[in-house]
Write a structure and sequence with these properties.
Blueprint (H helix, E strand, L loop, with lengths): L3 E2 L1 H14 L4 E9 L3 E9 L7 E5 L2 E5 L4 H4 L3 E7 L2 E7 L5 E2 L6 E2 L1
Parallel strand pairs: 1-6, 2-5
Antiparallel strand pairs: 2-3, 4-5, 6-7, 8-9
Length: 107
């Protein structure tokens, strides 16, 4: 089981944590939402839970709760800039279908 970050994603997260002045990494998980059933959630972590799975990629720690891990195992998190738009892109090999707007997915 593994969650990885591209170098661009890791640099973006590291810069943001540095600007915040605190943080130990990023929490990556899923929640029930949208027309396809699941949506990604991403938040910065100041303290992590003992039950979290911890992955490190390019010097950044990624924390995942045990309930989310089966849905995102093997996912690579990327950060893209296209024109004026920027954001995280989730390359999840487990996704079977996604909604048209890109907000949710199904396993």
């Amino acid at each position: 089981m593994a969650i990885t970050l591209t170098e661009k994603a890791a640099k973006h997260i590291s810069r943001y944590i540095e600007r915040r002045g605190k943080g130990v990494g990023v929490r990556f998980g899923v929640r029930t939402s949208g027309c396809s059933g699941l949506a990604y959630k991403l938040e910065y972590v100041d303290e992590y839970a003992a039950e979290d799975a911890v992955f490190e990629s390019h010097g950044v720690r990624v924390f995942v709760d045990p309930k989310s891990l089966p849905y995102i195992d093997g996912t690579e998190l990327d950060f893209e800039r296209e024109g004026l738009n920027e954001g995280f892109k989730f390359n999840n090999p487990n996704v079977k279908d996604a909604c048209g707007c890109g907000e949710s997915f199904r396993i």
